Amino acid sequence: MARDAKSQSLLYVSSYRTDNVYVFSYPRGRLVGTLAGFNGPDGECVDSAGNVWITNTLQSQLVEYAHGGTTSIATLNDPGEYPFGCSVDRKTGNLAVTNIYGAGSPSLASGNVVIYAGAKGSPQGPYYDSVMYYMYFCGFDRAGNLFLDGESYGGGFRLAELVNGSTGFTDLTLNKNIGQPGGVQWDGNHIAVGDQHAGIIYQLQIADSGATVVGSTPLNDSKDVVGFWIDGKTVVGPDAVRRDVGYWSYPSGGSPARIIRDRVLNQPIGAVVSAP
């Protein structure tokens, strides 16, 4: 890690094929560090202190790093599961994790959500949704409600809410067809949900068991933005196919304002911005 990394905002990008997480200065995009030793890193999230959580998918773990740190400060085990996405509730510090599927026998079991109170100890759950077999990404809103996307067993898009204090999901009907689940994040006003294959992020208004698209952010010149991170008026999206990271204006979208191209990136999946 570069000596001056801790004093600046940092962009963390998980690179699934290299088993590394690369750290870039933000917004400049200069490579300043590498976190190694993962086994299939995917989603990322950040807490109010700037500490970054990384889902170490094939190791069934969540690993935490301090802002600009070079060694992990905490590891949470998620035995028998494949953690994919995560989100931290800024008020409580609770860490929610979407397990894309479980290690059932003789075949893979359905995905689920677990929640680590205060991002410590053993998790609450697992919580299952009867119509969402694969669980991808999740995001808390400001009221502590958790939203997540995924797919049915047959591959159809699914969206659900775990209301704060509840142990059962509310399955949401969306007035838009989404091809492939992408990132989920509260943008300060709406829940933002990505469609990987279409290269679009949708802003959703939630009412009862319905979700209505009230805006969209086209990620032009992208091929497969899996996860993303909204930082104010910028959305950062790693492109797993193009092997780069784009910056787009948010929520207007359009052509990327900046692209990070670095040969170290190979199937980048998750991204978060951590402030000093």
Structure write-up:
- This protein has 276 residues and is mainly beta.
- The chain has one domain (5-274): 6 Propeller (Neuraminidase), CATH 2.120.10.
- The chain is 0% helix and 50% strand.
- Strands 16-20-19-18-17 form a 5-stranded mixed beta sheet, with no helix packed on it.
Task: Outline the fold blueprint.
Elements: E1 10-15, E2 20-25, E3 31-35, E4 41-46, E5 52-56, E6 61-65, E7 74-77, E8 81-88, E9 95-102, E10 112-116, E11 124-127, E12 134-140, E13 146-151, E14 157-162, E15 170-171, E16 173-174, E17 181-186, E18 191-195, E19 200-207, E20 210-218, E21 229-231, E22 234-239, E23 244-249, E24 258-261, E25 268-274
Parallel strand pairs: 16-20
Antiparallel strand pairs: 1-2, 1-25, 2-3, 4-5, 5-6, 6-7, 8-9, 9-10, 10-11, 12-13, 13-14, 14-15, 17-18, 18-19, 19-20, 21-22, 22-23, 23-24
What descriptors fit this protein?
single chain, about 280 residues, mainly beta, Neuraminidase, 5-stranded mixed β-sheet, 4-stranded antiparallel β-sheet, about 50% strand
What do the pLDDT scores average to? Answer: 95
> Radius of gyration over alpha carbons?
17 Å
Encode the helix/strand succession as letters: EEEEEEEEEEEEEEEEEEEEEEEEE
Strand residues, percent: over 45%
**Silhouette:** globular
Level of helix content? Answer: under 10%
Counting structural domains, the number is 1
* Poorly predicted runs of 5 or more residues: none
Number of strands: 25
